Every structure is written in C-alpha cells, then in structure tokens.
Amino acid sequence: MGLPTQKWSRAEIAFWLIPIVAFFVFPKYLTLGSQIMIAALFALSLDLILGYARIISLGHAAFFGIGAYAAGLLAKYGWGEPLTGLVVAAAAAATVGLLTSFLVVRGEDLTRLVVTLGIGLMLYEAANQAAFITGGVDGLSGVQMRKLFGVFGFGLDGKTAYVYSLAVLFIVFVFARTLVRSPFGLSLRGIREGERRMPAIGVSVRRKLVAVYTIAAGIAGIAGALLAQTTQFVGLDSLGFPRSADLVIMLVLGGAGHLYGALVGAAVFMVLQDYLANLNPVYWQFWLGLLLVLIVLFARGGLLGLLQSVQKRFGASRR
Amino acid sequence: MIGNFVGVVFDGIAYGSLLFIISIGLSVTMGLMNFVNLAHGAFAMLGGYAAVVAMTRFGVPFLVTLPIAFIISALAGAILERLLYRRLYRASHLDQVLFSIGLVFMAIAATTYVFGSQQQPVQLPPFLRGQVHLLGLDLGTYRLFLIAVVIAITFALTWLVERTRFGAAVRASVDNQQASAGLGINVYQVFSLTFALGSGLAGLGGGLGIDVLGLDPTFPLKYMVYFLLVVAVGGAGTIKGPLFAALILGVFDVAGKYYVPQIGSFIIYFMMVAMLLIFPRGVLGKRA
What confidence tens digit (pLDDT) does each residue in B162-213 have? Predict the structure, then answer.
C-alpha cells in the first residue's frame, strides 16, 4: 500500500453520484434516504476510531444521543436554526468525547469495551431519569425547526431533509477523508498495526487516540443532531445499546477502515432493516446475528473486502 | 434499621454469588483462551430454559433440574466450541466480539420464537420458600440456599484447579500455551473441557437464578454488562478475583436499588467505570 494521496478517483466520484441520482429516481423513499445518510455519518465516525485506531467501542451511541438531545433541546427552547444547532451538538458531543477519552484510551480491549459500554449505559440511565429535561421514555417532542437558510422548510416530502443530510454527510466525509490521509491518519494506522512500536518513532499514542476519539464523538454528535432536526423528535433509544451494536454491525458489514465501508454498510443495513424488520422484528434479529457470525467466519473485510478480493482475483486472471 | 441493612447486604451477597457462578466460566475462557465471549449469558439462559422445560413439561423436581441445566449448557458449550469458537481463538478481539454478539442475537430471536417473550415462571419447592429466622434476622431461605451452593462450588472449583492433574494442566495452559503443549499437555482438549465446564456453570447459574434474575429472551443482553464487569474488574483467569468482584457488585447493586431507587442502575455503571479506572487490569488481574 503506497502513501495515500488526496486525489479523488473516478470510482469515488461515481459513488457520490448515486445519492444524487437516487433523489430523482426514488422520490418516495427520501425519508429512508435521509435515515441512511444519518446512519452513514454515524458509522463514519465509528470507522475513525474502530477502523483506523482499533478501539472497540460498544457505547458510541452516547455521542449520537448527546448530539441529538443538544440539537433537540436547543430547537425546543427557541433556537431552531439548523446549522448552528449542528455546531452546538458537535461541540457538546466532542466535549464529552474528550472528557471520556481519557478513560477509554487506557487499558486494553476488554477494559475499553466495558468502559465504553458503561459510559453509554450511564448516559442512557441519566437521560431516562432526567425526564423533566429529556422527556424520558416518551422522548423529546416539540422540536421546532426554522427553515434552512431561511428558505427551505423541513416538510413532509423529506426533500430538504434529504439534501441537507447528504450535504452534511459529504462535507464531513471530505473532512474525514482528508484526515485519514494526513500524517495524523497515517500515525493512527501505525498505532492500529503496532501500538507498542509507535512510541519508538516518536508518536504519542495516547494523544493521538484522545484526538481521534474526540473527533469521532463530535461527528457522531452531528449525526445525532441531524436525526433530531430532520425528524423533529429525540427518542431515548438514540442513546441505547442496540444503536451502538447496530452501528458496529453496519461498519463491519461494509468493511472497517475504508470510510466507504461505513457508507456502504449503513446503506445496506438500513435497506435490509426497512424490508425485513417490517416483516417481523424477531426474524430480523436472527438474520442479523447470523449475518454477523458469517461475516466474521468468512468475510472479515465486509462487503468492500469481498469486492476487493473479487477485483484482485479478476485482475490476476486478466493478466 | 441495622437489621434492614444486614438484610440488604445479605441479599446483595446472594445476588453476587449468582453473578459469580455465571461469570466464572467467562473469566476462565478469557484468561485461558483470551477470548472475549459476549455470548456467555446465552449459555446461562439456555440452562434457565432447560430447567423451566424440565420442571413444567416433565414435572422434574426443582433440585434435579439444576444438574440438567448444567449438563445441557455444558453440552451446548462443548459443541459450539468444537464447531465455531475454536476457529476464532487467534482472531482479533473485534472479531470475537462481533461473532459472539451475533450468537446473542440469534439466541434471543430463537428463544423468542420458541418460548415467546414473556417471563418464565419458576416453582420453588416448599422447603426453599419463606424465611429462616437466624441470629435475630429474617433471611430468605432460597438466598441462603444460593449462597450455600456457591460456597460449595467455589471450594470444588478451587480443589479442581489447585489439586487435580486437570487443574494443573489448566494453570499451565493459562501461563504459557506453547510450553504446556511442548510438555505434552493437549492444550486444545483443556480448552474444550474448560469451555464446557464454564458453560455448564453458567447454565447452572441460569437455572438457579430464575427466581432472582428472572428469565426472558433478553437475558443475555440484560446481564451482559454484569458478567463483563465481574470479569473485567475481577481480572480474567482467576477464581478469587471474580468472586470478590461479583460480591461487591451484588451488594452495591442491591443496596443502590434499595436506598436510592431514583438513580436506579446508574450506581452500578458508575462503579464499573470507577473500578476500571482504579484497576485497569482487574483487582487481582495477573496478566501484565
């Protein structure tokens, strides 16, 4: 693998044309579309810490939920301007990310797993108990959004929500793409491949991990805020463990450590869920479990990993 | 007030004993195979359902359902270890986590399909119901029974690990797999047996715990945190560490829910994070 460049390949440009084409081809599915964008953004944030820094987190929904509640509360109590809402949500989530990152980066896989899980559950309990602020199990309703740029209202057709989510996703993606191809991103990969050797070449592992955890928390907060703003509601489940688990599944389904894997995984997961979970939620959980087991046993790289190995085989036979 | 407090501590110890018996298998698999098995609770659930089915469908007396729960979970553990887990001993922790979460999801869905999502009933025999008057205190008979069972099992396990040939093989394999294999210990067989034993104990705990923990398909997820916490705080690969962690956890959880119910399970999550900060490798963790 050579040094990464910041140049965009044709396949990438083609990839980003898909959601634009989908906007015109599937006008009835725009709501699902924006849900996919939000899930993709959330999965992207996990990819930064899991795919690039190999920190296993089972509590990433904490930051999603913080972003969602921050944006939701802001809009409920009078400040319904979407873009500043996103900024506030990102800042809130990143702050909590920074504070908790010190707990997470110490210790090994098992400790990290339990600590992230514990922090997630703690926030869930806190939001559950603080019903006078968050609405508890009933969720936070009465979120009033203003028009985007004062022009585009968040209507029932979902057009604004779709374009808005897509634009935010793209901007954050460009940021993440630049980040992982920067020297900082390279040192993260170094940590992933050999954590003990990195200090030998002068990299402060701790500081890098704290930085990437904070950034990922902020991005997760943006994703949460997008959900709160486009659905004008925040449910307690935005903080729950199932959301964290689903997120990990999306990422490994697509393939961790590519950024695009997060997007593909989120899209496939959400579409599958939309079809299967409506048939019967219990079966859906069974298939989800089976899918995970199969991915681990036979397709470690996820869908993108499969695609790459097919490509490699195809390329080899052509030669 | 004092009696009340003693009662809470007593309930907490009974609860902690139960957590210990379920989690000890997880601690061993983590210490021995370095395998993060989030599906451990599924084996406990299997034992619970085995006990319930034996009791309600076949009229087996309660005390006899416990060995049945043990055997069925141990068998399931042995089979799954051979077929699936063994392939992943060398995989990354992430793969193990994903794989075992997948198993949990499948277990939950399959259980819901077969038994429905409601809580399962347990009919304790008359001599285990009610309370015993002891030293001026009213103590739940069943909880005393739980504690007694766990004490017996702890002694048996300690004996097994410290005094038998099998135990020596287990300890050797935990310390250094390659050297043990070189000395002629069949390490994979040791893995299989300990995995089966750990699953069996989880199943036994599941059967014992129906009255205290409840039993419904979400069991493996609901208590996953507790099992993980016991192992993470207690340190993997020991008996004393998890026992200590489980008892502390049990007492704090029960006391928290009794004295400050408004913050609910918050206290336990907070404790968990706090303990892991103080002891990042577990209270008695041995791996450096």
Answer: 888 888 888 888 778 888 888 888 888 888 898 999 999 999 999 998 888 8
Residue B281 with chain A: CB contacts under 8 Å = 107-108, 111
A302 lies in some domain: no
Q: Does A295 contact B98 at a Cβ distance shorter than 8 Å?
A: yes
Q: b vs e for B102-122, b when ≥16 Cβ sit within 10 Å of the residue's Cβ?
A: bbbbbbbbbbbeeeeeeebeb
Instruction: For A228-272, give the DSSP string.
Output: HHHHT-B-GGGGSHHHHHHHHHHHHHH-TTSSHHHHHHHHHHHHH
ipTM > 0.90, yes or no: no
User: Which residues span the domain enclosing A126?
Assistant: 10-240
Residue A226 forms part of a structural domain: yes
- Among chain A residues, the shortest Cα distance to B282 is held by A111
H or E element in which residue B38 lies: none
Give phi and psi for A140, each to the nearest 5.
-95, 110
Interface mutation vs chain A, best among B86, B226, B252, B266, most A CBs within 10 Å = B266
**Cross-chain Cβ contact B273/A282 below 8 Å:** no
Compute CA A97 distance to the chain's CA centroid, rounded to the nearest angstrom: 14
| Contact (CB, 8 A) for A175 and A43 | no
Taking CB atoms and an 8 Å cut-off, how many pairs form between chains A and B? 128
Overall domain count for chain A: 1
**B104 contacts A289? CB cut-off 8 A:** yes
Instruction: Tell me which H or E stretch contains B138.
Output: strand B137-140
The pTM (predicted TM-score) of the whole model is 0.85
Q: Is residue A130 part of a domain?
A: yes
Query: Can you give the pLDDT of all 319 residues of chain A as single tens digits?
Result: 456 677 888 888 888 888 888 888 887 788 888 889 999 999 999 999 988 888 888 889 999 999 999 988 888 887 778 888 899 999 999 999 999 888 888 777 777 888 888 888 888 888 888 877 777 777 777 777 777 776 677 766 778 888 889 999 999 999 999 998 888 888 888 888 877 787 777 778 888 899 999 999 999 999 999 998 888 888 888 888 888 888 998 898 888 888 888 999 999 998 888 888 777 777 888 888 898 888 888 877 777 777 877 777 776 554 4
Under 8 Å between Cβ of B76 and B202: no
The nearest alpha carbon in chain A to B261 belongs to: A129
**Contact in structure between A204 and A218 (CB atoms under 8 Å):** no
Any domain includes A4: no
Q: What domains can you pick out in chain B, each with its CATH number?
A: 2-278 (1.10.3470)
Query: Any chain B CB within 8 A of the CB of A102?
Result: no
Nearest by CB: A282 against B109, B231, B232: B109
Chain B residues near residue A119 by CB distance under 8 angstroms: 269, 273
Q: What is the 3-state secondary structure (H, E, C) of A87-154?
A: HHHHHHHHHHHHHHHHHHHCCCHHHHHHHHHHHHHHHHHHHHHCHHHHCHHHCECCCCCCCECCCECC
